[in-house]
Design goal:
Largest sheet: none
Number of domains: 1
Structural class: mainly alpha
Strand content: under 5%
């Protein structure tokens, strides 16, 4: 199975997709009555929302990172960690701008 492999590229892909799935999960749990486009617009324009929803979205990467570290697939965990840092920096930039 592809998720059992240990390489940096897989970690980067999982690290990219994890927060996106986390964002969709937050949308369905907290904002199901709003259209997704309105949710994204609100998310991008409200600095408090960027911080709270952004950090909740990154929890998906924390779960993935922990899973891969505990199963000793360190190269994949490195990729997830790199993408988590990039997402975190992006969230900070969005909050400042």
């Amino acid at each position: 199975m592809i998720l059992n492999k240990d390489n940096l590229r897989l970690g980067l892909i999982l690290g990219l997709l994890g927060p996106l799935l986390g964002l969709v999960a937050v949308y369905f749990i907290k904002f199901p009555s709003y259209p997704f486009s309105d949710f994204l617009s609100y998310f991008m324009n409200d600095s408090k929302m960027i911080t709270s929803v952004g950090s909740l979205s990154l929890l998906a990467n924390v779960v993935l990172f922990t899973l891969y570290v505990n199963t000793h697939r360190d190269d994949t965990a490195k990729g997830i960690f790199i993408m988590t840092l990039l997402y975190g920096i992006g969230i900070l930039v969005l909050k400042i701008v």
